Amino acid sequence: MHPILNIAIRAARKGGNILIQNYDKQKVNHEKQIEKRYAISKIIKISETYMTDIIQKSYPKHIIITTRNTNLDFKMSEIIWFINALDGIDNFSKNLPHFCVSIAIIIRNITEISVIYDPLKNELFTSVKGQGAQLNGYRMRCSNVNFLSDSLIGITLSHKKSNFDNNIFEIVNIFLSERVKIRSTGCINLDLSYIAIGRLDFLFNFCANPFSIAAGSLQVRESGGLISDFNGGNNYFTLGSALIGNPKLMRIILVKIRKFFNN
Question: Which domains does the chain have, with CATH numbers?
Fold first, then answer.
């Protein structure tokens, strides 16, 4: 096992254990919403601290970026860890059992290692660039579904204004009319891991940014999936939206939505 991956797994499991301990406590607590937000922020801070300590003991010179310190000054030539101690905050706050810890390690501006941990199901999704993706040690491959009517498609919407706000519902209606089954789970990195293992066939991501999808995107690619912007190019971070899924559906869906994005 890659030595950095080993440390990343240890950190992700520690972060996941902290979430589980506090998730169980939440079930019997019915605080006001403001108090609950504060409590969750505190849980995230504690989790990030423990995870950061584990990483820094082995790699004190690596840069660690979390949801609370995204404005660090660093060079892309350095080794950078992207940590999301709780992806699926809204699910967690509502006791909806679908959230995860995610870690992406960026080396020379390329995502080389990825860990996504679902502590409730004890599912550990990992990938190393060029070595494939795994779930609990077993190789993952994306689905080979090639008919829209047989597909299960995820959608991730942004809380912020999107470049494609005017088109989102028109696009969704196209696929609903073809009897496509659509899900919105509230946890982007688990969506991406589910693409990698074939539980989801495709994903419309209307809030793509490097921090949020770095971990999951490596797993998608290492399992045979593709990532594209809505024009079939690679500008998904610039445009803020991405298409993610198996190659067969990618071709079909790009043709279906082309009319919305041709200038």
Answer: 3-131 (3.30.540.10), 148-261 (3.40.190.80)
**Residue 4 backbone phi and psi in degrees, to 5:** -70, -40
Alpha-carbon distance 79 to 59, whole Å? Answer: 10
pLDDT in tens, 80-124: 999 999 999 999 988 899 999 999 999 988 999 999 999 999 999
Has 90 been labeled as part of a binding site? no
Token pair belonging to 212: 């949020």
148 is in an annotated binding site: no
Tokens of 14: 């520690």
Main-chain phi, psi angles of 90, to 5 degrees:
-65, -40
Q: Is 161 exposed, middle or buried (0-12, 13-18, 19+ CB in 10 A)?
A: exposed
| pTM, full prediction | 0.90
